[in-house]
User: Which sequence fits this backbone?
């Protein structure tokens, strides 16, 4: 077995590999750029080597710099993680030439399967069902439009060397093909150093289901069942689960055997994933093979008990797989929510900055399941604009799908993140969505269920009552504490009343509180009484309560006369006022936000790639105005309505903060 390995990656996956290596007694070497000097993976590793400036194309994807780090530290093997150089055959070949073991598949398999065009041709030759498309290279936008017309709209424009949703667009018309083709090329070049593009038919109402395969150097190949990855936004997976709620045993077996047959055809070893599109009749079509560890691998580990990173290391060291296909059973159900640094209230645009608070739920066994959190950040750390926006992967396991979802709901409720925009509220809303809980999902779920973006969840009446009762009880605790402030007048004693008015989500409830040593009984105007018990104290940002014996976890913040409460995707302002305060508050005028309709504002911190209009131009609704790059993704800003450009205040190459003005309209 290896004594020392180098992880040619950063963030969450670097930390994940280090954990398995430490468990195996293997020393680890981290590499880092300027932006990652204080990163968590650097702290966790036994050694760390600086490899260059912050941009990935000057550090993490420069093969010579990784090889230099290997030579400096004497590492015997390199784990590439995912992204960056993980599917670069030149990197694997360079390591082999240097006498260093690549913890992954052989370079010919990477070349054959890592390239989406070649892999689809090989799959067709192997008799694997594939999605109709054009497998050749496409020169320009005009050719892309011609090919798209022949395939039939809608089409998927994809980077040949792509992954993680980068360099990928869905086009429904000629104009969208022309626009998407160039953006895909730009993203592919920036992310992978390869701007080749191909086009295939976009299958409507599809499910994205993938098979995890694992092979050793002794001819053994197994599949570790499937993962359902249909909850996606902009082709980026958000929530994954294993197994799929849609597959039956026959389809699972057919997909698994086909995935293994494809792996055998290219002499595949190590961990890899064969991705399929599955239609409503359980017909499946090969999409691509990822010749690396997938982001969502933890859900497979949770239902099979197999440490995939450990097995990758052991396979690379020449060990045979310790199990056979018949040994790999499905045990329970697992969920994964990807926590991204992106603001769901701003159409999920990237958000960067410092994590002023980062408190994940406690990992390990719970009363009914398991909680796991794979992360590469820490409280006080900074989310950089140079890399992928993932903060963490929150995973839960339960005996059934419903149990795994319930575990995830509670874990999301207890996960505290402050300082940046993040998608925790959105993940919570999905977990409560009836279509998701029923398993009736496709890759169009987010677009169909949140067509106007995400503006927060609306809680049902009973949940609101539970929240209202909890806030009334918490407010009483805070009021009692305020009566004990020292230095008050001797002849004055403040009395805490029993009657309050709770206002939340547009409703008002008059409540009466009867308190005792163990909690409070909150009685509503219609006579319903809810018993609230908690050890919450003022200032705590997380309130763990029971309401009528049922757990309730609230993220809390103090506001005048109440609380800011976040729960299950809802962000509520809850006012707890005396009857007189409520009466006077109703007379206060509402402060309206400023009118910004005549400005194009930068929706996220980023770099202006291009401005496509000039001062004095008349623009139409939906017309592209500017392109902003942030976190390796290009975002095209379009006109919301017809107008005339009065003034342009930014230019290509300008770095802007969120809400900075790009242009003004007449």
Assistant:
């Amino acid at each position: 077995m290896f004594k020392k390995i180098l992880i040619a990656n950063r963030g969450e996956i670097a930390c994940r590999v280090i954990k398995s290596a430490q468990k195996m007694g293997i020393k680890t070497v981290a590499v880092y750029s300027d932006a990652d000097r204080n990163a968590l993976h650097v702290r966790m590793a036994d050694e760390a080597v600086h490899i260059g400036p912050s941009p990935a194309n000057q550090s993490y994807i420069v093969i010579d710099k990784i090889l230099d780090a290997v030579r400096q530290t004497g590492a015997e093997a390199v784990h590439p993680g995912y992204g960056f150089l993980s599917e670069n055959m030149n990197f694997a070949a360079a390591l082999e030439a240097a006498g260093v073991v690549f913890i992954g598949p052989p370079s010919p398999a990477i070349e054959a399967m890592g390239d989406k065009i070649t892999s689809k041709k090989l799959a067709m030759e192997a008799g694997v069902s594939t999605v109709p498309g054009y497998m050749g290279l496409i020169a320009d936008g005009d050719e892309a439009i011609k090919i798209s017309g022949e395939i039939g709209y809608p089409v998927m424009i994809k980077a040949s060397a792509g992954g993680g949703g980068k360099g990928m667009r869905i086009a429904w018309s000629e104009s969208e093909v022309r626009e998407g083709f160039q953006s895909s090329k730009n993203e592919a070049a920036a992310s992978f150093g390869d701007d080749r593009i191909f086009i295939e038919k976009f299958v409507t109402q599809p499910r994205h289901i993938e098979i995890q395969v694992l092979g050793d150097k002794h001819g053994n190949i197994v599949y570790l069942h499937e993962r359902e990855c249909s909850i996606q936004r902009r082709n980026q997976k958000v929530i994954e689960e294993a197994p799929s709620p849609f597959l039956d045993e026959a389809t699972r077996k057919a997909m698994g055997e086909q995935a293994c047959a494809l792996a055998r055809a290219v002499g595949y070893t190590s961990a890899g994933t064969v991705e399929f599109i599955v239609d409503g009749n359980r017909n499946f079509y090969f999409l691509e093979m990822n010749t690396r560890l997938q982001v969502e691998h933890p859900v497979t580990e949770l239902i099979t008990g197999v440490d995939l990173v450990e097995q990758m290391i052991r396979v690379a060291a020449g060990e045979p797989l310790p199990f056979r296909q018949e040994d790999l059973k499905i045990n329970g159900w697992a969920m994964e929510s990807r926590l991204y640094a992106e603001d769901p209230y701003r159409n999920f645009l990237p958000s960067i900055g410092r994590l002023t608070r980062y408190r994940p739920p406690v990992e390990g066994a719970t009363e009914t399941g398991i909680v796991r959190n794979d992360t590469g950040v820490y409280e006080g750390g900074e989310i950089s604009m140079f890399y992928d926006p993932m903060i963490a992967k929150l995973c839960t396991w339960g005996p059934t799908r419903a149990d795994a979802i319930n575990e995830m709901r509670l874990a999301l409720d207890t996960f505290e993140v402050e300082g940046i925009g993040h998608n925790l509220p959105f993940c919570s809303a999905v977990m409560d969505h009836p279509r998701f809980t029923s398993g009736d999902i496709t890759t169009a779920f987010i677009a169909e269920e949140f067509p106007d973006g995400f503006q927060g969840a609306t809680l049902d009446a009973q949940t609101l009552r539970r929240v209202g009762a909890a806030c009334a009880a918490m407010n009483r605790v805070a009021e009692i504490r305020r009566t004990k402030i020292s230095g008050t007048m001797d002849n004055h004693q403040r009395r805490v009343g029993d009657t309050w008015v709770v206002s939340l989500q547009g409703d008002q409830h008059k409540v009466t509180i009867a308190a005792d040593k163990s909690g409070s009984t909150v009685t509503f105007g219609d006579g319903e009484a809810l018993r609230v018990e908690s050890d919450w104290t003022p200032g705590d940002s997380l309130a763990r309560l029971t309401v009528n014996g049922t757990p309730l976890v609230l993220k809390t913040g103090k506001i005048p006369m109440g609380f800011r409460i976040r729960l299950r995707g809802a962000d509520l302002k809850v006012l707890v006022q005396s009857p007189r305060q409520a009466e006077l508050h109703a007379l206060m005028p509402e402060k309206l936000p400023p009118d910004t309709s005549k400005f194009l504002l930068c929706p996220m911190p980023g770099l202006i790639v291009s401005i496509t209009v000039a001062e004095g131009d008349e623009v139409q609704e939906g017309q592209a105005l500017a392109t902003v790059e942030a976190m390796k993704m290009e975002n095209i800003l379009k006109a919301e309505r017809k107008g005339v450009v009065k003034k342009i205040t930014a230019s290509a190459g300008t770095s802007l903060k969120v809400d900075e003005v790009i242009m003004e309209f007449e």
Remarks:
- The mean pLDDT is 92.
